[in-house]
Amino acid sequence: MSEPILSLRAVHTDIAQYHILQGVDLEVPRGQVTMLLGRNGVGKTTTLKTIMGQWTAKSGNILYDGQDITRLPVSARARGGIGFVPEDMGIFSDLTVEENMVLGCTSGPLDGARKEWLLGAFPALGTFWDSEAGNLSGGQKQMLSIARAMAEDRQLYLIDEPTKGLAPAIVSTMAQALRELKGQGASILLVEQNFSVARALGDGAAVMDDGRVIWTGPMAELAENKDLQERLMGLSMEAH
Amino acid sequence: MIVKLLSGDKPRSAVLTAVLLVILICLAGAPFIFDGVRPLDTAARICIFILLVASYDLLLGYGGIVSFAHTMFFGLGAYGIALASTHMGRGFDALLAGSFAGALAAVVLALLIGLFSLRVRAIFFAMITLAVASAVAVLVSQFSAITGGEDGLTYKIPRVLTSANRMGEFLGTRVSGKILNYYLVFTASLLLFLLLLRIVNSPFGRVLQAIRENDFRAEAIGYRVVWYRTVATCLSAATAALAGSLFAIWLRYVGPDTTLSFEIMLDILLMVVIGGMGTMYGAVIGATLFILAQTYLQNLMGSASEATAALPLIPDLLDPDRWLMWLGILFILSVYFFPSGIVGRLRERRAS
Amino acid sequence: EIRIAHVYGKTGPFEAYAAQSHIGLQLGLEYATGGTMEIDGEKIVVIEKDTQLKPDIGRAQLEEAFGDDDAHIAVGPVSSGVALAMLPVAEEYERVLIVEPAVADSITGANWNPYIFRTGRNSSQDAIANAVALGGEGVTIATLAQDYAFGRDGVAAFKEALEATGASIAHEEYVPTDTTDFTAAAERIFTKMGEVEGEKKLFVIWAGGGNPMGKINAMEPERFGIEIATGGNILAALKAYKELPGMEGATYYYYEIPQNPVNEWLVKTHFERFDSPPDFFTAGGMASGLAIVEAIKKAGGAEDTEALIEAMKGMAWETPKGTMQFRAEDHQAMQTMYHFRTEIQDGKDYGVPVLVREIGMDEMNIPIRNQ
Amino acid sequence: MTAAPDHRPTFASVSLAERLDGALPVLLVPVLVVLGFFAIGVPSSWLTLTVSGLAMGMMIFIMASGLTLVFGLMDVINFGHGAFISVGAFVGVSVLIALGEWTGAASLLLNMSAVFLAVVAAMAVTGALGWGFERIIVKPVYGAHLKQILVTVGGLIVIEQLIHVVWGPDEIFFNRPETLKGAVTFAGAAMEKYRLLAVGVGLVLFIAMRMVLRRTKIGLIVRAGVENGPMVEALGYRLRLVFVGVFIAGSALAGLGGVMWGLYQEVITAGMGEKMMVLVFIVAIIGGLGSVEGAFIGALLVGLMQNYVAFLEPKLALVSNIALMTAILMWRPQGMLPVVKAK
Amino acid sequence: MTQTLLETDALTVRFGGHVAVDAVSCSFHAGELTAIVGPNGAGKTTYFNLISGQIPASSGTVRLMGEDITRLGVASRCRRGLGRAFQLTNLFPSLTVLENVRLVIQSRQHKGFGLFSMADSHTELTVAAMAILERVRLDTQIDQLVSELPHGDQRKLEVALLIGLDPTVYMFDEPTAGMSVDEAPVILDLIAEIKADRERTVLLVEHKLDVIRSLADRIIVLHNGALAADGPPAEVMASAVVQEAYMGKELDHV
Ligand SMILES: Nc1ncnc2c1ncn2[C@@H]1O[C@H](COP(=O)(O)OP(=O)(O)OP(=O)(O)O)[C@@H](O)[C@H]1O
Ligand SMILES: Nc1ncnc2c1ncn2[C@@H]1O[C@H](COP(=O)(O)OP(=O)(O)OP(=O)(O)O)[C@@H](O)[C@H]1O
Ligand SMILES: [Mg+2]
Ligand SMILES: [Mg+2]
């Protein structure tokens, strides 16, 4: 197997005076979906933001595509091919759905075929193409955030809880879309609380606690082992 | 007891406590501690501006409402005194009637502006008040028959409060009505300031803070936002008007430049920000510093420029005539170095 | 020593006027003392105070000057608002304040007190001089002024004085102080004046920036037979007069007009030292300096304010504008004004006011308003 | 239990009134002109007032255009704009005075070249100044209105003082280029020639700004960046660069406005720009934040309104702008054609 | 049937031409938990907004305990007993956790216009607030600023505010979205407790089917703004409209 598209080595991140990430080691293999799991407040979002550059790592290295990006500005990382779906969706609410999508393409206009594909997965976006994004429903905003990150080909997607607030029907189309992305060769780092989604999509998994990655391994192993789940996340996921 | 007087809002920093005490002592004993008319005038001005700035902080720091019309209310109070004293003749009844009328007018106007325009977006509200305030300033100059126009009004206050009233000596200082006048200003400012401090630390004050943070949610938990904002505007307007009345009593002159100009509005803004928004004590620090700078910066620059006379360029830049430029630089630097105001900075130091 | 406080708006929008005024004061003292800066062996000390053009600060500065610095006489300020705030201080401290160059009538009118003298002209003097210059049998005049005290008082005084000359006012137009577009005002005036027969003039009273004469002139008032007229102005503003050759009015000072030794010295010295001609406020400042020395000499010292006031009441003295005289009733200095006509001259990039005739102080009936 | 409905949201037809509502702001100018005609009654006066009001509106638009970018799009309350107007005027006028031979000649070509050079110089200087202003003064206070007000007022004071240092404290009077002096008369209405130039410049500017903002993503990036800057960067845009660029453009436009306004007034002072700020803000607000079209219509409305009201009832001229702003905000709380929502 | 607390009658709202909520008539009873389901954009949140007053209705009426409240403002409705938690977290970010809850209780006790008393002297507010924070397990973080809380805890606080209001009608909009599997049960237990109080009614918007199954007494389905189904959970879940429009294909079969 080739080297991973992304790897974090002993990454520490401070937010204000708090020491949040306390040495995160993480690898995202090429062409795979890696799940990042853990309880509320363990630092999953902070990890993604550190990779994206929205928080700066105090120490440690972030290697992306063989290159050290630990000190690169945010926009350079994005142009290097990282797509980001933040936890709060980051919708530009004054802009229309179309304008949000246009901004998703840094290198040119929105490709026609790509648009078709995305609107196929998220038809609601087509219906409200010219409406202000701020007026969308919660789930529609979530769809827009995902679609915007996918508006252009990226190598690596960082996706923070994409299924929250989505109706089951949309969850499955979204899962399908992610699978198709993977099929096109993209790698994905996905934070998810919905265990069935995690199980259905994940190739590998990493579990965080207290600002560290405490377990990594194949998703299948975690999915089957209830004791492991109990130990790592405090609760068996099936129970829920 | 003291904590009660301060409404439980302690300075929360040793340095701040010390500075506040020094200011209080200096102001309380100004006539006897300092020599001459200039320091006394400066002290009175500081008292009045502390009150004015604190009333603005209620609106801005606690209510999150940016208004440029604060000097308008200040002016109403001042003109109240001026008009009452001109038409009713010198006397305490004129002072009472004038300040009451001024405050009442301020409340009514604030109510109108508030109910009408607090519904528009915050930034538009700011611009509307800017436009209204500038229009009022022009109106005052146009209705010169009543207001004295650009030239303003000079009038007489009760003789007891002027230097003509000689009352003997105390601690080696000649006590005159002027000192009496100063203590009127000082006491009234202190009491009103404590009242404001109480208001911002009351349940009402907390609601204001919540509204500033997230008015949408405040409404959703049952607070009628427009009413709270309007009441805050009215309270702050009334206090500003009273500050204006004190200023008019002290100055015995009222004109658009002393009470209504946009410049004063900016000075108030700067005082609030330098001191620290939403802290009330910031008003004390900000007003004291700024008035001292305004009064003595030029003298200081004069000596600095003489001292550096031998050097090239520097004396030119330090020329007292360029003091406005330094004031502008002060505006910029204070925002740079005290993003949360001096009070905020002092409290942070304690926290870390 | 003799302490003279110059309390004036050194900083702020009138910085330029302030500088002129101060230079003038110094030159006046210098000329009057023959360069010694001493009166009867007493050294003259000039203390400068900046009002920042704010009445409250001006007042505090004057209090400081009288109270802390123990100044004998104060001079200033530039702005009328500041002056009015300062008047009571003079009374309180019982010291003389010579107002120069603030112009509001009420300084020597309703708000006057016995300690106030003014060497500068007042609004009425300006307006009446213009009325004398422009008026005449059968002339119809419209006025354009800013809508505030200065404009309205000016027009009122102008109108009163105009009656005596047989001219009549057809229309008074007032516009907000900061007006920049004069189209509407001009249209209103044209509409009113269009119906009138005979000689028609539009008299403009304007203070501060803006250039209504030029704007209205561009709208071709000659279509309606209207001539534009206005009072004199400081040198810089005369540029705008270049578009209006032949325009008439009355002015307070232009350095080439007065012919007397004081002015000759002033013009020569000013060119020598500053390489530029003296202006309105230089002349005014000098007049105040000359008045001070004259008064102190006459009173035999500056300590006794009552004696000073006695000396100054009715005092006549020489200035760059010829003889001035403090009127006993309201302490306003009576002075000559100049009827001018604008000419274009080679080498000057402004419209030059050329003397038509001097309007002597006895020709102008300046009302006394302090009673 | 009801049957499964189809998968499309319900769209009722939109009434004609609602559709008209969108176009109304565009109709306001003609409506006001017609109302003016009946109120004034004298055709030649009406024509003079209308034409000069429109031209005045154009000049206001030129001054407000930069603010539409900086205040409307970038959400920066920049009182420094007033100082840029003044600096633009001083630089431009200095150039014109230096080119005295060109401006003094009665040749349209030479005159216009001089004006053109003055504009270029003014825009270059104010653009550069804007760059420094953004880097030093505005950068730390994005998103904080209050601090913006203080800091930019500080900048305003400093720049005005520097103007005093460089050009001296006096107001500078000067004369317009020969061919721009005087007026043309038409049907009993006189119209300053210079105003025609202002109309031309205003129109060109309006069209150019519209094109740039429509054809490029710049407007989008700025609007999105104001709402959520980190997200815009996370999409791969160098937001700082765009912000600096737009700020420079806004400042340069202020410089252009300054030259045009200075040429109109024929006298310039350090405080001239500051004086225009209230008016310029009013225009940006009633137009709707960030909207070039809105600012354009707003400026024309202000220009016309001032002239009509000043003719009909001078006392009211003072409040006409405020009344206009109040009325428009009551009708449309976000201004006429908002591109950006006010907070 | 028990007492009807809340009723909407042909409640409709239009945005331009788009009918987001289309003549929904429905009533809600004491002691009942009604789950509202529907695809994204079906109008669930908008329906809530109409009931709690954030958006004015185009037509139709809302009645709370028999009183027509359609024309009332948000705050007045809240004071009459309508409480609402938001789908997208909506708190007072730079106040502390405790202060957030105290504010809510202060509102309930109508103490907002107390101008001259000291806020901190109202210990009864603090006591009541602490009790609620304990229930949602935020009592260890009372002095933290809300903006520093992780997403999941903010969701809990959102629920705490609603409980602090103690309304007659509780409206939850996806209370557990983004909450981790070990935290969600805390909130769900709380909701169950509220339901057990026979004086209240609960409206719950949720996308998690297991939550609905375990809590709901009744389900209504919104689809394209219209009321598409209304009935007992088992029956509604099995209906064609839910199966087709809402559930789509089950995830594991993809
Ligand atoms: N802006 C901030 N200031 C201070 N602390 C913060 C800030 N943002 C996050 N934290 C802290 O960092 C820790 C990790 O937060 P993070 O958002 O990464 O958690 P998470 O794993 O994504 O949780 P969740 O599943 O709830 O989203 C939390 O304890 C939180 O309190
Ligand atoms: N203020 C508004 N202006 C225009 N359209 C709006 C507005 N509010 C909501 N909508 C539209 O109404 C529809 C219903 O939105 P709503 O938020 O009620 O959906 P929802 O059922 O809560 O969906 P979700 O499950 O995704 O939260 C959406 O299509 C949305 O775009
Ligand atoms: Mg998270
Ligand atoms: Mg929703």
**Main structural class of chain E:** alpha/beta
Provide the gyration radius of chain E in Å.
19 Å
Low-confidence segments of chain E: none
Helical segment count of chain E = 9
What ligands can be seen in this structure?
adenosine-5'-triphosphate, magnesium ion
Q: Kindly report how far apart the N and C termini of chain B lie.
A: 29 Å
Strand content of chain B: under 5%
Residues in helix, % of chain E: 25-40%
In which order are the strands of the major sheet of chain B placed? 1-4
**Biggest interface pair, residues each?**
A-E, 45 and 42 residues
What is the residue-mean pLDDT of chain E, rounded to a whole number?
Answer: 87
Which segments of chain B are poorly predicted (pLDDT under 50) over 5 or more consecutive residues?
A: none
Give a verbal description of the structure.
- The complex is a heteropentamer of chains A (240), B (352), C (371), D (343) and E (254).
- Chain A has ten helices and ten strands.
- With 240 residues, chain A is α/β, with parallel strands linked by helices.
- A six-stranded mixed beta sheet of chain A has the order 6-7-8-3-9-10, with helices on both faces. Chain A has a four-stranded antiparallel beta sheet with strand order 2-1-4-5.
- In chain A, strand 9 and strand 10 form a beta hairpin.
- Chain A is globular and about 45 Å long.
- Chain A starts with 5 loop residues before the first strand and ends in a 7-residue tail after the last helix.
- The model of chain A has no long low-confidence stretch (mean pLDDT 89).
- In chain B, strand 2 and strand 3 (173-176) form a beta hairpin.
- In chain B, strands 1-4 form a two-stranded antiparallel ribbon. Chain B has a two-stranded antiparallel sheet with strand order 2-3.
- Chain B is globular.
- With 352 residues, chain B is mainly α.
- Chain B has 17 helices and four strands.
- Chain C is 37% helix and 23% strand.
- Chain C is globular and about 65 Å long.
- Chain D is mostly helical and 343 residues long.
- In chain D, helix 3 packs antiparallel against helix 5, helix 3 (80-98) packs parallel to helix 6 and helix 10 runs parallel beside helix 12.
- Chain D is globular, with a radius of gyration of 22 Å.
- Chains in contact: A-D, A-E, B-C, B-D, B-E, C-D, D-E.
- Strand 1 of chain D pairs antiparallel with strand 2 (18-29) of chain E, so a sheet runs across the interface.
- The structure holds adenosine-5'-triphosphate (ATP) (2 copies) and magnesium ion (2 copies).
- One adenosine-5'-triphosphate sits between chains E (15, 18, 20, 38, 40-46, 87) and A (128, 135-140, 165).
- One magnesium ion binds at residues 44-45, 87, 160 of chain A.
- Chain A: Keywords: Amino-acid transport, ATP-binding, Nucleotide-binding, Transport.
- Chain A: Belongs to the ABC transporter superfamily.
- Chain A: Residues 6-235 form the ABC transporter domain.
Give the structure's gist in a few sentences:
Chain C has helices at residues 15-32, 55-68, 80-93, 123-134, 149-165, 183-194, 212-218, 261-274, 280-299, 305-312; strands at 2-8, 38-39, 42-50, 73-75, 96-99, 116-118, 140-146, 168-175, 200-205, 226-230, 248-251, 316-319, 322-326, 333-334, 337-344, 351-359. With 371 residues, chain C is α/β, with parallel strands linked by helices.
